[in-house]
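Friendly challenge for the regulars: who can give me the structure tokens for this chain first? No prize, just bragging rights.
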Amino acid sequence: MKKLLIFAIVAVGLLACKDQNGPSNPVAKNGALPGMFSVSTTKQIQFSQGNLQYQAITHTWRFAEKQYDMIGTGNSYISPSYSGWIDLFGWGTGNNPTNSSKSDYSAFVDWGVNAISNGGNEANQWRTLTKDELVYLFYNRTNAASLFGLGSVNNVNGTIILPDSWSTPQGVSFTPSTAKGLADQGNFYSNSSSDYYSYNTYTVEQWSVMEQNGAVFLPAAGLRRGKDMQNVGSYGYYWSATPYDEGYAYYLIFNSNSLIPQINGTNYDGQSVRLVR
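First reply, four minutes later:
Bragging rights claimed.
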């Protein structure tokens, strides 16, 4: 009886580990999603399969298995000895991902200098978009205003970005937020009269169809200030590689009724990182 009990405990433990780590995203190739996105007049990029994650105790970097995965309140445990995963980082902490104080951000080190375990596992294969590239993505590429929309995937709020060559596949639908009244204000999009997360809602199965055709999803993973978590599930904050001035850097921010591709904030805030290649 004791042997059976021990076997059952071990079996459950193995299943739990498998569920936690999961297989690589079957749509991604070496961590890259299939869609191509223009970020300048001469450059296209591919997004990584999910937001960047880090485990301090093993010094391991990985991409989230699914695009809608986010750590959430677990980021409050950030420390050099933490055995869990984090996915909110101070600006440019590719060399010191567990920095969380105000005094440790004098220089930018791109997170892409590291080997990403499920992103090819080689250093310097990935990078962070610049502020100008984010602006081009949402404002200046052909049909830019029609190639993004706020919405939700598997009940997770966020922003959907479509590749340059997009044709909505059979069995799903997509409506740009600008077609629902999200107004271009010159350098950002806004309309406080509507909850745009309520449009473009997808089940896991529906999102799989979108993803196979190149769609990207940025979850509203919130913000970490020190070890205090804020706005998880309602706001998305994504670092660019571009500094603003001493102590500040540019990032993308969105919520249920606005999207701003170039705003600046304190570089010690923990924000999401979505790498490209």
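Residues 1-22 have pLDDT under 50 and may be disordered. DSSP finds three helices and 16 strands in the chain. Your move, everyone else.
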